[in-house]
Every structure is written in structure tokens, then in C-alpha cells.
Write a structure and sequence with these properties.
Blueprint: H1 9-14, E1 21-25, E2 28-36, H2 39-45, H3 51-58, E3 60-61, E4 67-68, H4 70-77, H5 82-94, H6 97-114
Antiparallel strand pairs: 1-2, 3-4
Helix pairs in contact: 2-6, 3-6, 4-5, 5-6
Length: about 120
């Protein structure tokens, strides 16, 4: 019988992932502020992303009143880090603007350093 191998945060942190997460300008989707293929790259690029792009990709209410978290979904389904995704989605409920950016950077760095 084959044993399934689960990804540790360390493996996920450094392994390039496809597709990348792309931070776009909410008002001009063709404008890209940065992208990340792994948790490590996400930690590296976050300080350079404008807070309004982070806010848009972390928590927004869609026209049908549903809540969207592109970053949370990417971390959950592409990186396979459900707990981190849950924490990011909670941040979006409580924080906004520069505070959200700062809290997100702290959270990602804490998870990355745990690896």
C-alpha cells in the first residue's frame, strides 16, 4: 500500500507553485504590482504591494453580496495550507488598509519562519 505524502510548510514555502498569485490593481486589472509562486516569494513580495491591492485580494464583497478572498483561496487550494488560509480570511474581517497589510506580512512571516 502506498502512503500519501503530506506537504509540510517548509516544502510548500520553497517549492515553486503554478499558477502564481498575482497582485493586480483593482481599478486596472492589466496593471500587475507583483506575483508569487511560493510562500517564500509571497513573504518577499508583500512589502512592495500597495495596501489597496492587498485589501482587494484579501477581502472584498462582490456584487452578489458574497465575500471573496483570492489570496485565501490560493493559499488553501494551491499551497494546501488550510489553517493559514483561515487566518488570512479572518484578518480581512477585522483589519483594513495599511493595518491589514502589516498584519498580513506578520502572519505570513510567522508561518514562513515556522517552517
Amino acid at each position: 500500500m502506498l502512503k500519501s505524502k503530506t506537504n509540510s510548510i517548509k516544502e510548500v514555502a520553497t517549492k515553486p507553485i503554478s499558477p502564481p498569485f498575482i497582485f493586480r490593481d483593482p481599478n486596472s486589472p492589466k496593471k500587475i504590482f507583483g506575483m508569487a509562486y511560493s510562500l517564500r516569494e509571497l513573504a518577499e513580495v508583500l512589502p512592495y504591494i500597495p495596501y489597496f491591492s492587498i485589501e482587494y485580494h484579501t477581502y472584498r464583497i462582490e456584487t452578489d453580496s458574497s465575500v471573496s478572498s483570492d489570496l485565501g483561496l490560493w493559499i488553501r487550494y494551491i499551497l494546501g495550507l488550510n489553517d493559514l488560509s483561515d487566518e488570512i480570511e479572518k484578518l480581512g474581517l477585522v483589519h483594513s488598509g495599511l493595518d491589514l497589510k502589516d498584519q498580513l506580512i506578520k502572519l505570513i512571516n510567522a508561518h514562513f519562519l515556522e517552517a
